[in-house]
Write a structure and sequence with these properties.
With 173 residues, the chain is mainly α. The relative contact order is 0.10. The protein has seven helices and no strands.
Length: 173
């Protein structure tokens, strides 16, 4: 199995900020694959807890719901990553780098614009799925993963399926 995006982020962090620990890993690919899966599972569990505990406003629009759920997921990701990935940097790590690692204003604006377009696409696609104008089979694996990144995993139950069912049908989720 490939390293997921959490494992990739963890690997980059460890390479820069924990180089001694990183160098001591006998099999970094296996380690970061497993760590990424652990992060993904814990993020999903924590996100589910946040969604259950959260109260949606009565007049919430679909776009507001998508944004609220995305915020809850980002909160869960931040907490889990801080707990098990972003460990205290080693003393000698990254201190001599001139690059502070911060993105420029232009990079930030480009990322924000991309995020807004992506959120609009997810919202529109989720609406189209719910309205029956788009079927799950119309989406490729990456598109379906994007929708599921912003919707709770129970979203698939609305269509009589689950992530496990989709994987059993050959989908790479």
């Amino acid at each position: 199995m490939a390293i997921n995006h959490y494992g990739t982020e963890a690997r980059a962090y460890w390479r820069r900020w924990l180089p001694t620990r990183y160098a001591a890993l006998p099999d970094p690919i296996a380690f970061f694959t497993a760590l990424g899966e652990q992060v993904e599972a814990q993020v999903g569990d924590l996100w589910d807890q946040y969604v259950i505990a959260d109260t949606a406003p009565a007049d919430e629009t679909h776009e507001e719901r998508v944004a609220r759920l995305a915020h809850l997921k980002a909160r869960a990701e931040h907490e889990v990553l801080d707990e098990i990935v972003r460990l205290e940097p080693e003393q000698e790590a990254g201190l001599e780098d001139e690059d502070d690692g911060l993105e420029s204003d232009e990079e930030f604006q480009a990322r924000l614009t991309h995020l807004q377009h992506h959120t609009e696409w997810v919202s529109t696609t989720a609406d189209a799925l719910l309205d029956g104008n788009v079927r799950l089979s119309d989406l490729d694996d990456q598109q379906l993963r994007h929708v599921l990144d912003y919707m709770t995993p129970s979203f698939l139950r609305l269509f009589g399926t689950s992530a496990e069912d989709q994987r059993a049908r050959g989908r790479d989720l």
